[in-house]
Amino acid sequence: MQRRLDARSPVLFRVFARIFERTLRKGFHAVRVANRPAASILQSPRLVIYSNHPSWWDGVTFLYLADRLLPGRAVYTPIDAAMLERYGFVGRVGAFGVEQHKPEGALHFLEACRLIFAQAGNVLLITAQGRFADFRQRPLKLDPGIAHIVDIAAETTYLPLAIEYIHWQEKQPELLLRFGEPISGNELAAMRLPPRLALLEQALTATMDSLARHSMARDAAAFDVLVAGKGGINPVYDLWRRGIALLTGRAYSASHGAPP
To answer: Which of 55, 87, 227, 259 has its CA 20 to 30 A from that of 198?
Structure first.
């Protein structure tokens, strides 16, 4: 496991962070965050950010957030070992393989957490559902492994993160984010396993429900824009619209509605 973690390259992490930011600009109308955690939370010596798992895009989102919100910190993310074999480069940017649905997978995950948090300053980003699941699915069920981390690293801060991908007015979807209230690892360590897991599930559920309300309202003003993507409908049609705007002296925007 130490070899898996040591495969992370800070240089390649920064390279792929730039690549993935461009990927987000191309794939989304905007990346929006409803709130930003306090600097004191993001600077916690041992930080676990755990989220729901709605899409393939989560890995791209994680890498971008790690670069944008946690500069200079070593950020690690568990991934299915089979997927790591398919996308080997992700091991170079902080992903480590865990054998899902196998007894040794849980042991390897906890061993990785022990090694990660043996050094203050490291961060674990994890899709805590352990499988793809619709954003609206309730009750929320998290993989029990996240509740065991405090047994090997009690001095941690847990930060819920809700992620949703949704279409509003544009051809491109919106990527919406909301952070929840932090939870002290010491508070969790004082509980038995079932109440720990229930507390983590409740905190993430509340964060997702809050994001859902903002999402349904379609109120762009409720979010800060982290990445402004490209608007537009079709290259030929957009060129025609641009020409009409130029001839009539009107301002041109490729977006169907307000630009991000």
So the answer is: 55
- Give yes or no: residues 170 and 241 share one domain: no
Q: Which helix (H) or strand (E) holds 245?
A: helix 235-248
- Looking only at the bridges linking them, the beta strands covering 157-166 and 174-179 are antiparallel
pLDDT value of residue 236: 45
Contact of 128 with 50, CB cutoff 8 Å: yes
Identify the pLDDT of residue 200: 98
Same-domain check for residues 236 and 117: no
| Residue spans of the chain under pLDDT 70 | 231-260
Pair 219, 34: CB distance under 8 Å: no
Report d(CA 249, CA 161) in Å as an integer.
44
Which residue bears the tokens 């495969």?
A: 7
The enclosing H or E element of 169 equals: none
What is residue 130's predicted lDDT score, i.e. its pLDDT?
A: 87
Which ranges constitute the DSSP H helices of 77-176? 81-86, 103-117, 145-148
In the three-class reduction of DSSP (H, G, I as helix; E, B as strand; rest coil), residue 26 is classed as helix
Encode pLDDT of 54-102 as tens digits.
Answer: 999 999 999 999 999 999 999 999 999 988 888 889 999 999 999 987 8
Dihedral-angle region of residue 14 (phi above 0 means left; psi in -120 to 50 means alpha; beta otherwise): alpha
Range of the domain at 247: 232-260
- Residue 113: exposure state from Cβ atoms within 10 A (0-12, 13-18, ≥19): buried
Give how many domains the chain has, as a whole number.
Answer: 2
Are 113 and 162 part of one and the same domain?
Answer: yes
